[in-house]
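How it folds:
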Amino acid sequence: MGTRIMDDAARLLAQPPSYTDEPALHRALAHLRPHAPVSWVEAPGYRPFWAITKHADIMDIERQNDLFTNDPRPLLTIAAADDALRAQMEAGIGLSTLIHMDDPHHRDMRKIGADWFRPKAMRALKARCDELAKMYVGQMVERGSEVDFAQEIAVNYPLYVILSLLGLPESDFPRMLKLTQELFGGDDTELQRGGSTDDMLAVLLDFFTYFASLTASRREHPTEDLTSAIANATIDGQPLSDMDTASYYVIVASAGHDTTSAGIAGGLLELVRNPAELRRLQNDPSLMGTAVEEMIRCVTPVKEFMRTAQADTEVRGVPIAKGESVLLSYVSANRDEDVFDDPMRFDVGRDPNKHLSFGYGVHFCLGAALARMEMNSFFTELVPRIKDIELAGEPELSATTFVGGIKHLPIWYSLR
């Protein structure tokens, strides 16, 4: 296969704490893009992989979903976790979500929820998003002039939206929040349930148990919500397995919440750090659509996905052997100098904005329209009311190689 290109900077992509130091991470990625855009990574605890850091290469790989598959390694986890999750799935008790699947099963499963995220459904949800945005901005007024925006506002607003869509009782919201944070915070000492693979599997089992009970209830007593649609869905005339139903709920409840909360918290931080752009948005509310896209680009809540080559191939002239995995660094793609002018600048009017935060191709995020609408509703309510806003302490980011962002954002503010 020839000499492998290995660059030490690429090893940061396999170190969760790297994502808590964005300046250092972006310096490393800015080095990799021109010098080692396809770099072989051998990191302690992980199986080796190729780090892909250029926007164009990531799009090419995403287009070739038959050549580069999600199975058996859809995201970067330590080898022990890879093996444990695989064993659970083979035993029929693990979770296999849309991000784990390839066509045709992926296509069939995706269809089940697709109608709930189309424009007609989004219009129906718009009023609920607007109502909740008013409620949470109102809470900021009630709380006075200081708040940990990430934990008290950004986490809760999208949770209420997505769990309302699922039709879950409000009494279960705190439980879902805790499980979601434990699921995506498995590498973060503050958010994780524990540091072992068994702890992570226990979180997955708790999800499975909760939603298995919910499925039985919705099959016996169908309702007009997404949970019931999933519970009563069929493929080729057969109901979904317990693993498929639970997995579907988990990807909607967790990914549909945690990514959006990261986008909202990170988006506000960009406005605080760039007061001229905040004033520009206040003076021209028509920029809200492009502002939200720029927040999503800069935050990039989903840091990476993995794909595995099903045949010998190459990327940017670098040979990739059958069975080898590639890591698609969306964080890097969204700062690619060949695609974005002045990529480190936050620009509420950036257009075009070809970010890859929602992925690309057949695995493009099912809930992208909902995430955009939630963020638009929230900032449409908040931005015009801001008189003054500044940091009241240092923001803290979560340690992760998958999904995450700002976990603490203390701010001082004055609202109209």
